[in-house]
Amino acid sequence: MCGIFAVLGLTGDPLHNRKRVYGLSKRIRHRGPDSYKMDVSIKEDGKQTYMVHKRLSIVAPGPSGEQPLYTDASHDTTFIANGEIYNHEHLREKYNIVSENKSDCQVIGHLYEQNGPEFIRELDGMFAFVIEDRKTGTIMAGRDHMGKIPCYIAYGKDGSVWFSSEMKTLIDDPGIAKYEIFPPGHYYIREKGETEGKMVRWYDPKWVTDVEYIPDRKADYTELRETVVDAVKNRLMADVPYAVLLSGGLDSSLITSIAVRHKKESKNTFGADEPVHSFSIGIKGAPDLVAARKVADALGTVHHEIHFTPEEALDALPDIVWHLETFEQVRASVPMYLLSRAIKSYGFKMVLSGEGADELFGGYLYFHKAPSAAEFHKECARKTPRLHQWDVLRANKSTMAWGIEVRTPLLSQQVCDYAMNTDPEQKMIRMNETDEDGHPFLEKYLLRKAFDTPDQPYLPDEVLWRQKEQFSDGVGYDWVDGLQDYADKMVSDEQFANRAQRFPLNPPTTKEYYLLREIFEEHFVTGMENGDCAYATCPFGKSIACSTPEAVAWDPEWEKSVGDISGRAVKNVHVAGDKFDLKKDGAGKDTKSSAKEKKPAEAASVMAIIGGHAGVRGSVAVKAAKGPVKSGARALGGRGRAAVKSRFVGLRAVKASAVAFA
User: Residue 137 region, left (φ>0) first, then alpha (ψ -120 to 50), else beta?
Assistant: First the structure.
């Protein structure tokens, strides 16, 4: 994994522009501490292309894997990529690709030359790439199916187009007219002579494109298990030391167990005969530390336990928001950020992590309240494509802040499509029923049962059937409670009472989010010409235990609350739920926030923002298609219908028009 930054079609003085591009690209140096290269091309009309690559070398370290990449000495096809292509050896053989460069990403340019932009469907991996076809003048860029690799696109006032691994390179350049998220599962194409390119959806399974689709295929436990095992084995491809993140919960424990059992079977893996190293983090005595130690002992990993204090976590808040580029996922990001620093100090460059299972299999505790199997599936289908703004974003940016690559096997295309084409009746939580082995149908039952192999157990029963504990809770309740107490001290009652004036765009409902919004604005909004663009990349909406805003409607008590992402917010389900104070949503009813007084399902459309700007300068636009979305459509991630417009002056977002619901 690396950092990429590309500007194509830039005008002006080349000497000045190179310094300009170099200066902006330094902001993502943390993503590629191992090497730096820039390709510069100046066309006959004076327009320039700059392709910058900041390398974190995982596969083919040294000169044999350096970027920018070329298909031959002519440099007619020049490209940069961030990510890993796990089936690159198969593709080299299939298409007879011969190259001195051994980077797994080398296949991208050759496949483009042979098959055109639709080649992207053959890639198995996580990626964001930019290609300049200097023979035809075509520009192409693409992003993986789940947005595991971050990517942003910007549009220059001079007609140039910009691509970057992180938003921070785009926030203040005076030549940029607007920027937005590059949507996952899409590619961008612009032919020579065109002033605007187009986004084309390439990842288009029915569960993504048809909001009414409810699968009825029954899952086969053996088939599901083999699909997950293969995904983990493929992601052990590395030429450098790697480790696993182990919280002691189901997902990370399964990943660890598979890595331990199948490491020797993996192709091109580092230290095939060496033991697997595992890492966990928490406040001393935290639930995750205890559980992780039990799993590590059972599996025989070389385990490392990292401790932190609430004070150390609070010190990191401004840095966390800077790296995340959002005010969401902060609770879980802080420990992951602190853990990544420790992992780096041990000499590891890649880690495996368990993100994705909770969305694909309904693992969050709020799924206990799902009113039907159909609604259970629809919630999974809402939540999974939005991960690039939530857990996937957190996993990537928290680790890459320290030059650590995270891989998420459970979000492979194969696992995603298997899980989301499975009858949701098999995922429904029924705690008052047990299977033939006496196990309750608890959250993620399907995944647990697939790995319930008594003859050759992957995990001890007490781990395999342990209740879900969300990461920000599991590292220690003192961290979550300490953050809330800190926000109470930093944000006065008077400030909070006037939050609708301070934050007209979706005012925060808690002091914690008031504080995080302030930090976010300081980094990305205050004094920025394109501050509205920064806000457009962030999701909004009430959540219970990490639910989507739509699912808040499952419980009348949730609708009356301010919401909280902690699993403890689900009363009568989480073991500590009865002691958790889920505050009522009574304050602020006199405000006129854009989504505050809408029903949860309507407010959800605000959360589904994928960086709109539908042709309107200085606006935040959100649009989603009604009914099934056809391949290539520009309705991204969310399923709500709204348009929110705002402009920014200094610290404030001043509402320009009301929310309009179709």
Answer: left
The torsion angles phi and psi of 88, rounded to 5 degrees, stand at -65, -35
In which element (H, E) is residue 139 found?
strand 138-143
- The set of residues, in sequence order, having a beta carbon less than 8 Å from that of 15 and lying 6+ positions away, is none
Claim: this prediction has a pTM higher than 0.85: yes
User: For 64, how many CA atoms within 13 A lie in the half-sphere containing its CB?
Assistant: 9
Q: DSSP per residue over 5-48, as a string?
A: EEEEEE-S-HHHHHHHHHHHHGGGGGG--SEEEEEEEE-TTS-E
Asked whether the beta carbons of 339 and 245 are under 8 A apart, the reply is yes
Report strand pairing: 125-133 vs 152-156. Answer: unpaired
Contacts of 158 (CB under 8 A, 6+ apart): 9, 10, 11, 12, 175
Q: In what order do the strands lie in the sheet with 186-190?
A: 69-70, 77-85, 125-133, 138-143, 186-190, 198-201
Segments of 236-311 assigned E as strands: 242-245, 277-282, 302-307
Per residue in 208-257, pLDDT (tens digit) is: 999 999 999 999 999 999 999 999 999 999 999 999 999 999 999 999 99
Give the chain's end-to-end CA distance (angstroms, integer): 41
Burial (CB < 10 A; 0-12, 13-18, 19+), residue 134, is: middle
Question: 415 with 251: CB under 8 angstroms?
Answer: no
Say which amino acid occupies 134.
Answer: R
Helix (H) or strand (E) holding 129: strand 125-133
Structure tokens at 354: 């368990």
* Bridge partners (DSSP) listed for residue 306: 281
Cβ neighbours of residue 114 closer than 8 Å, sequence gap 6 or more = 95
Residue in the structure block whose two tokens are 């790296």? 323
2 is catalytic: yes
Q: Which residues contact 429 (CB under 8 A, 6 or more apart)?
A: 362, 367, 368, 370, 441, 442, 443, 445
Residue 305 burial by Cβ neighbours in a 10 Å radius (0-12, 13-18, 19+): middle
Residue among 106, 99, 98, 148 nearest 128 (CA)? 148
Q: Kindly report the CA angle at 29 between 32 and 618, in degrees rounded to 5?
A: 120
Higher pLDDT residue, 220 or 565?
A: 220
CA-CA distance, 545 to 555, in Å (whole number)? 12
Where does the pLDDT of residue 657 fall: very low under 50, low under 70, confident under 90, or very high at 90 and above?
Answer: very low
Nearest-10 Cα torsion for 350, 128, 155, 400: -10
